[in-house]
């Protein structure tokens, strides 16, 4: 770093523990929703931390259609969510042409799920509540609590201030490996 760079020293402080849970899911997009609902259905005390005021991640905030890539995963939770969304009028399962995609070597999609983002939010909230998971919104994960190279929780900030959440399992569903990076794991986003 440059010698003339200024720094500010942050004082050490005690951070109150907001909650202790079995499974903490950071992010509530497609992956986070599946992780949280399935964990709660299997008996885990589950909490979702979401930075927006609603569930859905990029599926709702950026109006992105909900599918993960060149391989269909329309089974299990994905199928249940898509079917329930379709029943509510919030999704249209469209049969795709069985042709090769633009990128060579990638298998074609057979279904594409076009979503209505507002209906996605409501269904996600319903499914989380049905499963018994809890949610805190408008909350940013700003750091991780790491002991012996294991993530034991996160530091959050919201209108209530800075707090800690401790957890047996932390799921990074941030969409961009934010929790993983904050825990100190090497993240290389540049192509080799």
Automatic annotation (TrEMBL):
UniProt keyword Oxidoreductase, yes or no: yes
InterPro entries: FAD/NAD-bd_sf (IPR036188), HdrA-like (IPR039650)
Keywords, in A-Z order: 4Fe-4S, Iron, Iron-sulfur, Metal-binding, Oxidoreductase
Single annotated GO MF: metal ion binding
Protein name: FAD-dependent oxidoreductase 2 FAD binding domain-containing protein
Originating organism: marine sediment metagenome
